[in-house]
Amino acid sequence: MSPLPPTADHAWLPPDPGHDLGSRAVAIDATGPLGETVRAELVALTARHGGSVSSPEGATVVLMTADRAADAGIDLEALEEVGDIPDDGFALVRAAGNVAVVGGSDRGLLYGFHHVRRAGLDLDAPDGVEVDAPAHPIRMLDHWDNVAVHPVMGRVERGYSGGSLFYDDGRLRPDLTRVGHYARLLASVGINRVALNNVNVHAAEARLLTDRLHDVVRLAEVFRPQGITVYLSVSFSSPMTLGGLPTADPLEESVQSWWRAAVDRVYDAIPDFGGFVVKADSEGQPGPFGYGRTHGDGANMLGRALAPHGGEVFWRAFVYNHQQDWRDRSTDRARAAYDHFAPLDGTFDDNVILQVKHGPMDFQVREPVSPVIGAVPRTRLALELQVTQEYTGQQRHACYLAPMWSQVLGFPFGDDAAPSVSQLVAGAAGAAADASAEAHSGGVVAVSNVGADEHWTGHPFAQANLYALGRLAWDPDLSPEGILDEWLGATFDDDAVRDAARSIMTGSWQTYESYTAPLGVGWMVRPGHHYGPDVDGYEYTPWGTYHFADRDGIGVDRSVATGTGYAGLYPEPWASRYERPETTPDELLLFFHHVPYTHRLHSGKTVIQHIYDSHFEGVERVEEMVAAWEAVADRAPSAVAQRVGERLAEQLRSAVEWRDQINTYFLRKSGIPDEQGRTIY
Ligand code: GCU
Question: Of 26, 95, 151, 665, which has the highest C-beta tally within 10 A?
Answer without folding.
Answer: 26
